[in-house]
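Late entry, written up from scratch paper. The run itself happened at the end of the previous shift, but nothing got recorded in the book at the time, so transcribing now.
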Amino acid sequence: MLRPRVIVCLDVKDGRVVKGTQFKNLRDVGDPVELAAQYEAEGADEIVFLDVSASKEARGTLLDVVRRTAETLFVPLTVGGGVRSAEDIGPLLRAGADKISVNSAAVRDPELISIGADRFGSQCVVASIDAAKEDGLWRCYTHGGTQPTELDAVEWAAECQALGAGEILLTSIDQDGARNGYQLDLTREVADTVPVPVIASGGAGRAEHLRDAFVVGHASAALVAGILHDGLTTVGALKQSLTDWGLPVRPTPLGTNT
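Output as recorded:
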């Protein structure tokens, strides 16, 4: 069995890491290069870098920031935001990304996933899904959570996997920044539907929420952001709690459990 992963997310706007609630009220929390290095030192299994305004601003991802961030890391780096075509994937990989996350462009043109998987391998393509509960439907949103679609998140996740996505990054818009736990029903439904790893995102407030994502939500990984940015805990402390509960997470570097 694959070990559950603790992944740190860096939402980046104008070259700075930001954090908000339900994708709104963004505030500056630091430099992406410095924070990526800090969280890797604390024991993060992977880093996710999301350019949260690229799609809304109809521009590409900030390659220079990606390159400087990747240069500091030894753990895998996933980059998303502003990928508009398969031609955008290569430059990001050459800039140091290990995986590319796609959302808005894949909804507009699903072949982006299959082309990306064919050219670079399924392991490089992460389907990012932002969803909110509306009238009994897990509705997918694009463009940083601002544009609703007619897609159901569970059905869309299955289609993305069939097209070649090697991983699903599943974010609950309702839970984002609330810190009262991941959306376990949605996470479990998607994880039980697709055979590829599912990353739970949106709602982490304490270590128990990560445990629940793995045990109840059947997630392969849990994304964490705000509670780390605000200094409420560390990656090492989260992983130590998971270890104490018997979950086989990857060990943290010495001296990072507090």
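The mean pLDDT is 91.
(Scratch paper discarded after transcription.)
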